[in-house]
Amino acid sequence: MTQPILLDCDPGLDDAVALLLAAGDPRVEIAAITTVAGNQTLAKVTDNARRLARLAGLDVPVAAGCERPLVRPPAWSTMHGDSGLGGVALEVEPVALDPRHAVDVIIGVVMSRPGEVTLVPIGPLTNIAMAVRKEPRIVENVREVVLMGGGYHSGNRTAVAEFNVLTDPEAAHIVFGEAWPLTMVGLDLTWQALATPDVMGRIGAVDTAAARLVVDMLGSYAEAYRSNHFASPPVHDPCAVARVIDPSVMTTRKAPLTVELCGTATLGMTVADFRDPDPQCTTQVAVDLDVERFWDLVVGALSQLSQPTKIN
């Protein structure tokens, strides 16, 4: 059966790979794409999402959402360059922008298909938090939430805080605190998804426009990560999509989750309480990745996206 998802994203190099993975794998159906400011400004990430949707041959709503966090000033990532896609230019015509606000699209998609849709947020959680505040019934009508963000051991933006969560910790606190089934695919898992030279060779051998784009983007990503002492770049966001496609590609562990909002040195820390969680606990964290199977999913999806497109 095909699993409908709503992809809430801020493309972003690894967001782009996640979107192409979801578009190319027949086990998921992208019901809508919504964008949120994060890796770059809302205007830039929305333009990237619209062009990626065209490249992937998608005919789904693409709607722009929140241009800044709930409380704090915006802070862009330096890892993704001025455009959000590193030095890669995607020369395709963007799909039309849905005139609705992303928050209304999220609510509309979930409420029109009760119990069916999985939310896959892979950027800051501002849109999801706003949606649940505007229409609390989405909590009982969503199938589950599978997000990329956080980390229960360490962070990347600070010693303990991951970028997506730290960008809007108040929004993350809201999302983690709701009673919906939620899987946090955090840094503890995603740092296992390294785009090694062997992986890059496999993707390059696919030789489609989408695969060539991914090779170029991951090359840009690798340059950024080398300054952070990574020999190969970890590809975070596709891990959340992979969890929906094939839950057995990673192991998880139940734990109540919360986000630190007050600590001077620990703001944005995602705290996972592994002390004998209540059997009714609805949150879990991703722990171990089957790396080979994960990259099989990515390569297989890219093989399905063969629309000829010029990319410089």
From TrEMBL:
It comes from the Bacteria. Residues 5-296 form the Inosine/uridine-preferring nucleoside hydrolase domain. InterPro entries: I/U_nuclsd_hydro_CS, Inosine/uridine_hydrolase_dom, IUNH, Ribo_hydro-like. The keyword Hydrolase applies. GO terms for molecular function: hydrolase activity. Gene3D superfamilies: Ribonucleoside hydrolase-like (3.90.245.10). It comes from Ammonicoccus fulvus. Keywords: Glycosidase, Hydrolase. CDD domains: nuc_hydro_IU_UC_XIUA. This is Nucleoside hydrolase. The lineage of its organism: Bacteria, Bacillati, Actinomycetota, Actinomycetes, Propionibacteriales. Pfam families: IU_nuc_hydro (PF01156).
